[in-house]
Design goal:
The protein is of the alpha+beta class. It has twelve helices and 13 strands. The longest helix has 18 residues. The N terminus and C terminus are likely disordered.
């Protein structure tokens, strides 16, 4: 699915719209949907952990695999084939998200998707989540409820069998969300990073470059030395070139007002970063079609392809035509990316997508010395030619150990 036009808007029924009206501020999370119980000004300190959990748990999704859910010391989850996939990921305010830019609903959505994508990249179907949150005492309960709503909506939209089966709530000076996700292989072997072999096709599903362009826009245009003052001026125009910070200028911090303006002007890019969509079902389809290696590409095509290359003892050679086509598609979504489109396609991170490889009859050999960008890949599915969601990106070739090290260190 592609969106055309300079500034595409999300459909009104897009599940990520649920939290769009929340102010981008931990201390001012006033989603009216989450305050029907208790006072709108209730905080974690004023109501306590027990009451906060009583208001959070009813909002969380149920897991189809849960034999025993929240309420006991531990949950019990069915494992039909006697195995399960498990992964964990942590989001900390500062290095992983900024409250000035993300709504509570965004945080819950992204915390779910980043973990669900890791499960899917193993070829498994997500089945359950365990969520731990540590938050300042001043955190409004409405913020915690908004995070729960994001978790629920992400599961409903992308992994309807998955749900939250337990977790923990504690106090910290820094808002932190830790999620552990489980998945069911349904009798299949897991698809690992080390399975790529010479001659395999590299295939991708999902949108490349949008998330990387989104975080670039936020840091470039939604920061200010005097937060809030520039929002009115920026809203009056639709800039297509980034605002450059003068050298020696005062330190700039994420600005909530500017963030809302940039998000309204470039929704496809910013939403891909703050509330990403991921073709999770493609992971299982790839495994069923014979994918030899898969990886959730959250740190950029080039970096994550290098990880598969290292694990598999191979090089990955991307098609220049594929990169150009992806860059053109990104420019069609939002012209603000301009000449940097190919860089975002290759190096833009947090797309929450994955990549995979499938065997082919012939090998393409090693990586040539000028192939510094070889190995870029993104989410899901094997080179299954009948599936429209998959796009052939390149091939895998053999390479000697010293040559591989030289390529990866470039």
């Amino acid at each position: 699915m592609s969106t055309h036009g300079a500034h595409p808007q999300l459909p009104a029924d897009d599940p990520r719209q649920s939290g769009a009206a929340d102010p981008h501020d931990l201390g001012d999370a006033r989603d009216t949907r989450v305050t029907r119980e208790g006072g709108a000004g209730d905080t974690l300190e004023s109501v306590g952990e027990v009451e906060a959990l009583k208001r959070i748990f009813p909002r969380l999704p149920n897991a189809a695999a849960a034999l025993l859910g929240p309420g006991d010391d531990a949950a019990v989850i069915s494992a039909p084939d006697a195995r399960f996939v498990v992964t964990t990921d942590m989001m900390i305010h500062g290095p992983d998200f900024r409250l000035a830019w993300s709504t509570p609903h965004d945080l819950g959505w992204k915390a779910a998707v980043t973990n669900l994508a890791d499960v899917a990249a193993m070829g498994a179907t997500p089945s359950a989540l365990v969520v731990a949150i540590a938050a300042p005492l001043s955190t409004p309960v409405a913020t915690l409820e908004g995070i729960a709503d994001g978790l629920r909506d992400a599961c409903a939209a992308l992994a309807p069998l998955a749900g939250v089966v337990g977790g923990d709530l504690s106090v910290s000076n820094t808002l932190t969300i830790a999620v552990t996700a489980f998945g069911d292989l349904d009798g299949r072997a897991p698809v690992v990073r080390s399975g790529a072999r010479p001659g395999d096709i590299v295939a991708v599903a999902g949108d490349l470059g949008r998330a990387g362009a989104g975080i670039w826009l936020l840091f470039d245009q939604a920061t200010s030395s005097e937060p809030g003052l520039a929002a009115a001026e920026l809203a009056a125009a639709e800039p297509v070139t980034p605002i450059r910070q003068p050298s020696g200028s005062a330190p700039r911090e994420p600005d909530a007002a500017l963030g809302r303006v940039i998000r309204s002007q470039h929704p496809a890019l910013v939403n891909a970063q703050l509330a990403p969509m991921s073709p999770l079902a493609a992971g299982v389809l790839a495994a069923q079609a014979g994918a030899t290696s898969m990886l959730d590409v959250s740190d950029g095509l080039v970096l994550d392809a290098g990880r598969i290359a290292t694990a598999s003892g191979c090089s990955i050679d991307l098609s220049h035509a594929f990169i150009e086509a992806e860059a053109n598609a990104l420019r069609a979504v939002d012209a603000v990316v301009g000449a940097q489109a190919a860089d975002f396609v290759l190096c833009g991170g947090r797309s929450c997508t994955a990549g995979d490889l499938r065997p082919r009859a012939r090998s393409t050999g090693g990586v040539s010395p000028d192939r510094r960008r070889a190995g870029a890949r993104s989410r899901a599915s094997t080179g299954h030619r009948g599936r429209r969601s998959l796009r052939e990106a390149g091939r895998v070739g053999s390479v000697q150990r010293l040559e591989r090290r030289r390529w990866l260190n470039r």
